[in-house]
Write a structure and sequence with these properties.
Elements lengths: L4 H14 L1 E10 L7 E9 L5 E5 L14 E7 L1 E6 L3 E6 L6 E8 L17 E3 L2 E5 H4 L9 E9 L5 E4 L7 E6 L9 E5 L2 E7 L2 E7 L7 H18 L8 E7 L8 H5 L2 E6 L2 E6 L5 H13 L19 H18 L5 H17 L8 H6 L5 H26 L5 H12 L10 H12 L4 H9 L15 E5 L5 E5 L6 H6 L2
Parallel strand pairs: 1-10, 15-16, 16-18
Antiparallel strand pairs: 1-2, 2-7, 3-6, 4-7, 5-6, 8-9, 9-13, 10-12, 11-13, 14-15, 17-18, 19-20
Helix pairs in contact: 3-5, 5-6, 6-9, 7-9, 10-11
Length: 496
Amino acid sequence: MSPSPLFFLLFLSSFSLSAQNLRYTIEVEPQLAKDMRIAVDLEFYHSGHDTLYIGLPGQINQVTKAYKHYRNWSVTGGRIVARDSTKITIKRTEKNAPTLQLHYDIFPPTVGDAVTRTNSSAPLLQPDYLHIRGYSLFLIPLNYKNFEVEVNWKKVPRGWKIQNSFSFDTKQQKFKSNNREDWRRTNWIAGDFRQYKANVFGKPVCFAVRGTWNFEDTTLFNIILKTVKTQREQWNDRDIDFYSVSLIPYKLPAKPSEWDKESLCMGNGLYQSFVTYADESVLLDDFIDLFNHEMMHEWIGGRIDEGIATASINMRWFVEGFTEYFALRNRWKAGFMTETEFFEEINQEYFIALYTSPNAELPNLVAESRRWESYDLERIAYRRGCIAAIYFDMAIRQRSNNKKNLFNLLNDLMDYTYGTDRNLTDSYDFFVETLAEYYGEDPTKWLNLYIDQGKKIPSTAFKLPNYLVVSANEAGIPQVQLNKAVKGAADLFLKD
């Protein structure tokens, strides 16, 4: 559900009064052998402050100490007086100039490295392309709240194509935002990509791809277009001005771990975009799964902002698990999978995979603190969260006689966080209270037992509408199926 046009008019009129300008000029130097770099010049207003602070990224997924990617600092109109792992401190020296200019160079962690599981979130720069997250590309003054941003690509190699979360094939982007996270939670690529463009509901969708695959580019692009269409229909949100998808070849390390072998494709769903990486052997069904999951993050984890984890609250189970569940439902609705395949995947890849895992009952915070140790640990949040989504969807459907479901809850959460500075971690009580309204009782004990403590949900604990059945298999693991005795069971279950 999108905010009304009146909301946007009021928002833009108030926003324009207080927008703070940032102008980035980017030069790419991929031909410098060991000195490959992305050079950035940032012009910003000091607004009368004598001391200014520029934030630095710390950890981005598996990439730690991201602040070490920056070198060759210089300031026009000021001088750097301090630098640590979180920020640089600038003292203004030119009292009459309204702006300062900060220069920094971004270096890849290892020159020319291909994409691997562990470096995919780092700045990637090779002789024929680059990929970088907005978090890494755009450093910002910490006192800024409303952003009016201009990005100019001053120098890029001849023939390189540019694409990002806002546009494609243009060397200048301009946009506004009142959220310091949204516009930097973006993907930026340039290089010898093959590009494709089409419209969905009158809005451009662009696909940039490199590498050689087992199928045609257009086959992948048609899957992307169908995914975009069905998800926008589900969320009743057809007004996203632009959407970018990119696919970059992934390379297994010389000595791949079991995790590497399990992760032959991966992705990252960000603002108005997702980027995917894959080994050339990946099958089409894996791409369908990946595309549906990553785009679902436009809403779950994007507009429904879970916030930053704290010492006591980590909602990754919600973001990844609920995304898995609704991406699965979308694949069934869109015809990417059959009813039989849907329930087989739910039962095999979530219930059985979690309940037979040696880490099945690891407490949530412990599992998250160890998530980078193995593929199984990293998948705990996906599996546990997806099972929680199934549980609450069934319970809400039963209580409301199928008039309400989990999707209604998500829309309420999106109304609460989208376009605001609120998130579910800081407003965890709101999350619990809103869930209670749909669930019919306080879910605190349930969340503590089955999420925080990580206990397995027994098959007898599920609250079911009459068109669904949960039974235990020989190992006592819950298995979900439609109740074939109920006419139209599949249609009832697929109703959002």
